[in-house]
Every structure is written in structure tokens, then in C-alpha cells.
Design goal:
Layout (H helix, E strand, L loop, with lengths): L3 H6 L2 H4 E6 L4 E6 L2 E4 L10 H14 L1 H14 E6 L3 E6 L12 H7 L7 H14 L8
Antiparallel strand pairs: 1-2, 2-3, 4-5
Helix pairs in contact: 3-4, 3-6
Length: 139
């Protein structure tokens, strides 16, 4: 079994194997014997690969953080490149609340569950950039 530190130092292609099931429209990844699924792939399919990597990083850091990110992503969250943090979390707003948050206020209330993990979220987003160096940087 790999130690936690080994996951972050190993090249990404040695750690992760994509597993896609087109017939089920599920985007997931197999990492170190665990399967991570992207609950927001229907809302933001272009961001799935980044989210799967972030879920892997977050789960290795703290399983509760991983769970909170899964909930927020499933409701409507995207990753946006940031020069300062690598990436930032941006809510997807859908006034009908079908494919995203019904309002910014709703998201702001719900994102409070991330507060105890503020430092770990920042660290995870910076690691995400290291694992995805080809990701475009914000200007």
C-alpha cells in the first residue's frame, strides 16, 4: 500500500487510470484501488478530469473535505484557473435550480461547510495545478 506522500510525488499517469462508461454517461477515475465519480459531469462536462484529480487529492488529505467538495460539485461548481491559487471554485448559477445553484446567496450559505478546510482547499487547488501544468492560467 502506498503512503500518502507517495501519491503526491508519483507521476499522475502512474497513479490514475481513467474509467469511462459512455453508455451510463458517468465520468469516473480509478485511483489506488478507489473509484472517484464526478457528480457534476452533467453540468460541467469539460471540467470532469480536473475534478476527478481534485477529488483524489482532497480525499488523500481529508475524507470529510472530499465529501464536502463532492456535494458542492454535484449541485453546481466549476474550477476556474487562477494565478494566485492555481484554481478557484466558481458556482454555477441556474435560476431554476435544475443544473446549478438557484442563486449566489444559496451557494454562499452552503459553501460555509468548506470553512473548516480553508487551508486544505487552498493547498489542494495548488496541487491540482501542479498535476495539470498544461491548464491555462488566468490573466
Amino acid at each position: 500500500m502506498k503512503r500518502q506522500g507517495d501519491l503526491f510525488s508519483a507521476p499522475q499517469d502512474e497513479v490514475m487510470q481513467p474509467v469511462c462508461h459512455q453508455e451510463e454517461q458517468v465520468h469516473n477515475i480509478l485511483t489506488d484501488g478507489r473509484v472517484y465519480m464526478d457528480p457534476g459531469s452533467d453540468i460541467d462536462p469539460d471540467g470532469s478530469d480536473l475534478w476527478l484529480t481534485l477529488f483524489t487529492i482532497a480525499d488523500q488529505m481529508n475524507h470529510d473535505l472530499y465529501s464536502v467538495l463532492m456535494y458542492l460539485r454535484g449541485t453546481g461548481l466549476r474550477l476556474v484557473p487562477s494565478e494566485k491559487f492555481g484554481f478557484i471554485l466558481q458556482p454555477i448559477i441556474d435560476r431554476e435550480g435544475k443544473k446549478g445553484w438557484s442563486s449566489k446567496d444559496e451557494y454562499d450559505r452552503e459553501k460555509k461547510c468548506l470553512a473548516p478546510y480553508r487551508t486544505k482547499v487552498t493547498e489542494a487547488l495548488k496541487k491540482l495545478l501542479l498535476w495539470n501544468p498544461a491548464s491555462p492560467q488566468a490573466s
